[in-house]
Amino acid sequence: MKIAIIGAGAIGSVVAAYLTKAGEDVTLVARDPERVRVLNASGLTVIGARGRETIKVRALTGLDQEYDLVIFATKTQDLEDAYQYNNKFLDNGIILSSQNGVQADSILGIHIEKERLLSSIVMFGATYCEPGKVTFNFEGDWIIGKPYGPVDAQTHAVADVLRKAFPVTVSTNIAGMKWTKLFVNFNNCLPALLGKSMQETFADMDFCRLSVRLLKEGAAIVQQAKVDLVSLPAFPVERVYGMASMPEEQAAAILNKTLTSLSKEPVYGSILQSIKRGRTSEIDFINGEVVALAKQMRTSAVLNEKIVDLVHEVERTGIYLSPKALKESF
Description:
This protein is an alpha/beta fold.
């Protein structure tokens, strides 16, 4: 397959690097001409879970032709712009979304025929460092499926290609899995408010407790809305509801142990990575998704709504909260 990856952030870069290394014909698309210049001149340096190596990649500022497979690796909030900028060459081929949250397929589904659209969940972790350099923090599955129909031969063909570089699972209910992944990403908001890594943030038990309260509120809203969560390969639904139902101190201790040992390198989370680059974050599509769902049911998600507002304030001002200030806010 001729593959194009739109979005040269953390995930897009790691995918481009390892698919290229696996022998695939890959083009990485970044809107920033300087980033494209660096990539073409020096390649992509990836450090972390698979060691350190520099891989030569082909980079462009926009699609130059039609591709067999186009992977959208931008954040959800940038998806519409990315489509509009490249839509001249998106009339054919397979389109694969990879965003956090549950809205990406609805956004792309307005423009793309449903039978050409695949959806995915990325369970591996990466951090964007600078143009041409990313950290591959930890391994994980790449889960793909059909958001608007049954899994077919096309789905398995794409899975076979991606499997050359990553462990891949094919899902028959990708929509339900995306709701579960939403809760995996629920913790990203607190490091974004502090400007700190996941490890540093959740070494403080108070922030583990706050994260548990956000999860409990979110899980209650989702249950009330009768949203069906589906287990991920390494993250069963029972973990969400188990954490939501167990005593706060017990759940906080589990978060502390899990999130302080994610990676040897600092993990900053997707929301903070956007803020560090001066971009709007995907908070509205993670914690904000629960807030919107609560409003639809004429109830409220007070804690998560406050978190969303605080993240937007940090986006606007560029000023992170001190640990003391964040604790006092709650």
